Automatic annotation (TrEMBL):
Lineage of the species this protein comes from: Bacteria, Pseudomonadati, Thermodesulfobacteriota, Desulfobacteria, Desulfobacterales
Keyword annotations from UniProtKB, A to Z: ATP-binding, Nucleotide-binding
One Gene Ontology molecular-function label: ATP binding
Source species of the chain: Candidatus Desulfaltia bathyphila
InterPro entries per record: AAA_14, DUF4143, P-loop_NTPase
Keyword presence, Cell division: no
Record's protein name: ATP-binding protein
Length: 449
């Protein structure tokens, strides 16, 4: 039972006077049910319904009025209504269109009951069955694998966690926190993996768990696919996505296949709805808003870096490098940064973008761009001298501010620099492990300038 940041958000949701039913979204096995179980300790009564179970799903099949439905739920769980707070959690809600429909009435007529729901295949099943949650009557939160901050809490590295949350992070903490970060990058953030690791501290014991996760995702394919042909295409997409993670991809022939763009695009977008992958599209924006260009090739973000290491068989090489950017062509460093950035805001679906400038003789690409107030902040993930950051320079020359961030294998540094065209700017170099705190450091950078 790990601390998850979402529990603090759940507590704030519970205290709202105009509270709406909550829909918790995330890939299978990222810890949604466990987080609700921990949160349920705040309540006098906790009612858990799993709509994969026939007896729980049948409660919603009779189209009862809300008052009678609530009584039927209490009766099915042999619970007597009484004073105090009640949390009702409806798991795998996508299995019952009627349960989805009732979310509206829970909001309008049952404000004394805290209602939350979740489902790993929510978007896929709801889209296929042409049902939807009532607009404006529910609130969403999003769950991902454990972040590095949550990992530090899980392994009980209290001192490192305290220093990680100190802005600016003191230089003497760099070596200690980087060591933890490398271990996090190695095993990833899937809760079952971290639970086993904290108990056994044996990397080799994690192999059957990684394999079990892959098997469970492949077993879900039939739930994703609309027919037997798409079943095979989606299986191929799942099995080859880890090898393409961190790279810009084309749908046509994805994963060295003979599949066409149309069918592979459908497969990859299906996996994105299941939150197993993310397709990050480029933008040419240098001022807000960030407008992604869906005509360009996206970069593929996989669910979890630890899963990539296992599937691609990189774990044995992990101890041979001190700089993630020199490892696996730099893709892994970019990928773990992307994973941390996606998980920052749990109240909206994670989507980051990167910046491109495509000219016949002068292409440029910045790894990530982040909206911050009236600015778009460029973020590069690489080692090397500041003078070599040519793409970042091109972005700065076109932007309305003089701030940039580099994530690398070194300590925190703030440098006054200038672009190749002579525009002065401030470069904040941060160790990789501070990617999840990037908004705190952008604010610090601007205040210090």
């Amino acid at each position: 039972m790990f601390y998850r940041k979402i529990i603090d958000e759940l507590k704030q949701w519970a205290e709202k006077k105009d509270r709406k039913p909550l829909i918790l979204r995330g890939a299978r096995q990222v810890g949604k049910t466990t987080a609700i179980d921990i949160f349920s300790k705040e309540f006098d009564r906790y009612i858990y319904l799993n709509l994969e179970k026939k007896e729980d799903a049948e409660i919603f099949n009779n189209d009862l009025p809300l008052k009678d439905l609530i009584q039927a739920i209490y009766l099915s769980k042999n619970i007597s209504p009484s004073e105090g707070k009640t949390l009702l959690f409806i798991d795998e809600i996508q299995n019952s269109p009627q349960a989805v429909k009732m979310m509206r009435y829970f909001y309008e007529s049952a404000g004394d009951i805290h209602v939350a729901a979740a489902g790993s295949l929510l978007e896929i099943v709801i889209g296929r069955e042409q049902i939807s949650f009532p607009v404006g009557r529910v609130q969403y939160m999003f769950m991902y694998p454990l972040t590095f901050e949550e990992f530090l809490a899980a392994i009980k590295a209290e001192q490192a966690l305290s220093l990680y949350n100190t802005v600016p992070c003191p230089e003497f903490a760099f070596t200690q926190i980087l060591r933890h970060f490398h271990r996090y990058c190695l095993i990833g953030g899937m809760p079952e993996i971290i639970k086993n690791y904290t108990e056994e501290e044996n990397i080799s014991s994690l192999t059957p768990i990684y394999q079990g996760l892959l098997t469970s995702y492949l077993d879900d394919v039939s739930k994703y696919a609309r027919n037997a042909t798409m079943n095979q295409v989606i299986r191929h997409a799942i099995e080859t996505a880890p090898f393409e993670a961190g790279k810009r991809i084309k749908f046509q022939g994805f994963g060295r296949s003979n599949y066409r763009s149309r069918e592979m695009g459908e497969a990859l977008r299906t996996l994105e709805r299941a939150m197993l992958i993310y397709l990050l599209y480029p933008s040419t924006s240098t001022d807000p808003p960030i407008v992604p260009d869906l005509r360009k090739s996206p970069r593929l973000q996989f669910l979890d870096t630890g899963l990539i290491n296992y599937f691609v068989d990189l774990q044995s090489y992990f101890y041979k490098t001190g700089d993630l950017h020199s490892f696996y062509h730099g893709f892994l460093a970019e990928h773990i940064v992307g994973q941390e950035l996606l998980a920052i805001d749990i109240k909206k679906p994670g989507k980051t973008s990167f910046w491109i400038r495509e000219k016949k003789q002068s292409n440029a690409e910045v790894d990530f761009i982040i909206p911050y107030k009236e600015y778009i902040i460029p973020v590069e993930v690489k080692s090397g001298k500041t003078g070599a950051l040519r793409s970042l320079h091109q972005f700065i020359d076109r932007s309305n501010h003089p701030y940039a961030i580099r994530l690398y294998a070194g300590p925190l540094e703030k440098t006054r620099a200038q672009t190749l065209e002579g525009k002065p700017y401030t470069l904040l170099s941060l160790p990789y492990f501070l990617a999840g705190k990037i908004y705190d450091y952008i604010e610090w950078l601007i205040e210090q300038s």
